[in-house]
Amino acid sequence: MNVYVVDDHPLMREAVVMLLRRMRPGANVVELDRIGGIEAAVKQHGAPDLITLDLKLPDTTGTSGVHELKKLFPETPLAVLSASPSSDAEEACIEAGADIYIEKSSGAQEIGNALRALLSADGQFEELAPTDNKLSKRQKQLIVMLDRGLSNREIADELGISEHTVKVHLWRLFRRLGVKSRTQTIHYARTHGLLAS
What we know:
Blueprint lengths: L1 E5 L3 H14 L4 E5 L5 H8 L4 E4 L10 H9 L5 E5 L3 H11 L3 E4 L4 H13 L16 H11 L4 H8 L3 H15 L4 H10 L6
Parallel strand pairs: 1-2, 1-3, 3-4, 4-5
């Protein structure tokens, strides 16, 4: 397994690398300080199975890094790790193709949980075809909560889990249904009889 950590802050990059090595001892963790080096790194190490990306790099502006990486690796899970509060940049990053947005201030355990959930989802990519009857109990629960208009924070509070875990659950649900947003999820659920009308 190849995990790419793209962050120009040496201390932060080192912390993420240590976290990933603890989580996946056998993984090949590739460190980059900018996106520019990614193609050479892929030639040397192979394609990434997971990418963590800092938003503010010497060779990116705004969500340009997310766009670039998603163009190169459309199927690879991409976690944005940023010092910016999620209220500032999360929506733009998700729209650009990131799978999850994690604030660097979250702390090691929270960041670890979010990355672990993304990694454990990698075996589920084959199940991209919408299969309503194969939705987990939690996924059905999420659809109902989305229909109620609950925010990630409210869902987290109600389920007694972290907001990052909610984001990963939603990401899996979107992939399972072949949708990209909450609105599309609710529309899909209504048209496929997953919600009582």
